[in-house]
């Protein structure tokens, strides 16, 4: 789903994507670019978003909330 969102024409080149099908090394590179403000938008699945510590993050948009309340 995050790859589908990235294909929308209104999303600019400063966007990174994180999900389980991306190799760990590429995920680390994407996170480093995001932390360095070289990419402005980070699209990620809920699994990838857990445990990411970004203290200066201004906005999170959840597209599909989990069905299970505990998630």
Care to give the gist of this entry?
Helix content is 30%, strand content 11%.
Low-pLDDT segments: none
Oligomerization state of this entry? single chain
Biggest beta sheet attributes: 2 strands, parallel
One letter per element, helices H and strands E, the order comes to HEHEH
Number of helices: 3
Summed over residues and divided by their number, the pLDDT gives a mean of 77
CATH class: Alpha Beta
Structure description:
The chain has about 70 residues and is an alpha+beta fold. The chain has a single domain, classed as Rossmann fold. Helices cover about 30% and strands about 10% of the residues. The chain contains 3 helices and 2 strands, in the order αβαβα. It has helices at about 1-5, 25-35, 45-50; strands at about 15-20, 40-45. It has a two-stranded parallel ribbon with strand order 1-2. The longest helix is centred in the middle third of the chain and has 12 residues, at about 25-35.
What is the topology?
Layout: H1 2-6, E1 15-18, H2 24-35, E2 41-44, H3 46-49
Parallel strand pairs: 1-2
């Amino acid at each position: 789903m995050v790859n589908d969102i990235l294909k929308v024409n209104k999303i600019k080149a400063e966007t990174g994507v994180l999900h389980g099908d991306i190799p760990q090394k590429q995920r680390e590179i994407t996170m480093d670019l995001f932390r360095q403000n070289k990419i402005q938008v980070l699209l990620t699945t809920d699994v990838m978003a857990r445990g990411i510590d970004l203290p200066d993050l201004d906005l999170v948009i959840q597209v599909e909330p989990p069905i299970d309340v505990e998630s």
